[in-house]
Amino acid sequence: MNSGILLIDKPIGYSSNQVLQKVKKKLSLKKVGHFGTLDPFADGLLILGIGKGTKLSNIFLNEDKAYVAEIFLGEEKDTDDLEGDTTFKSSQTVSYENVISALKNFEGQIEQVPPTYSALKHNGKPLYDYAREGNPITKPARKVIIHELKVIEFKFPKLKLEITCSKGTYIRAIARDLGRKLGIGGHLQSLRRLKQGSFDISDSKSIDSLCEENIISIEDCTKIFNEISISDNEYADLKNYGKTRSKIKKSGYFRGYNNDNFVGILSYSKNHLVKEILV
User: Fold this and answer.
1) Which CATH number fits domain 65-196: 1.10.287.950, 3.40.50.2300, 3.40.1010.10, 3.30.2350.10?
2) What is 4-62+199-217's CATH number?
3) Is 80 tagged catalytic?
């Protein structure tokens, strides 16, 4: 089995785990993991790690993401998306100028309260379990970064945005909080993920068209990292001890090569090159 990643265009109506299981069965894969979930009502880029590529999740989960989101203004729901029950409704309308002014509050670093229906844990239990039992838990606000908010289309009550943001950002919470800022409520009606780090939806495949040749090798999917050459002795240390002394003193991740052969992904810590993945 090849190790690496797959770029999937997740369809609406499937959970990320359902997509993972379909891909696993179709390609007869043993070890598969995803690098960040999408809700069933959302579609777009879903990155799957294959074999040793699952270890890349710690790296790629931290990447920025880009979405196209459609927000419905004038109605708030308990889940902050179209699948929930209505908790507030307004007959008031707002102008394009009102929306542009309100969106300025969501630029740069902001504090965001996660939705009560989310997979975040409280005492080891997902928040959505508490909410479904009628005991919603409100987590403290967390700092996230909104790099860009661009209006694609506005025709009240629908607002379509392109959003580029840091990891941990809830687009549902942006919809909720924008509606509250405007005083009329709001919820997320649709969501499509366009990018995650250097990976783009244009390079993804549908589940139906997928084949094993679409697996991007660990070497090819990490070309954003600098290359570093390691000696035979250093390579032996990495295989035997997971690290080797080094004088490079550069932070970040590296693609390691021994005698011009790709051997894996390394990082630097405390005067050592550390094994992240050896192929």
Assistant:
1) 3.30.2350.10
2) 3.30.2350.10
3) no
Distance of CA 215 to the CA centre of its chain: 19
- Domain spanning 225-278: which CATH class is it, in words? mainly beta
| Annotated active-site residue in 39, 43, 80, 177 | 39
CA torsion, ordered 104, 108, 111, 115, to nearest 10 deg: 80
What value does the mean pLDDT take over residues 207-212?
A: 95
In sequence order, which ranges of the chain are alpha helices (DSSP H)? 16-26, 57-60, 96-103, 127-132, 171-182, 232-241
- Looking at the chain, the domain(s) classified CATH 3.30.2350.10 span 4-62+199-217, 65-196
pTM: predicted TM-score of the whole model, two decimal places: 0.92
pLDDT at residue 235 is higher than 90: yes
pLDDT of amino acid 1: 61
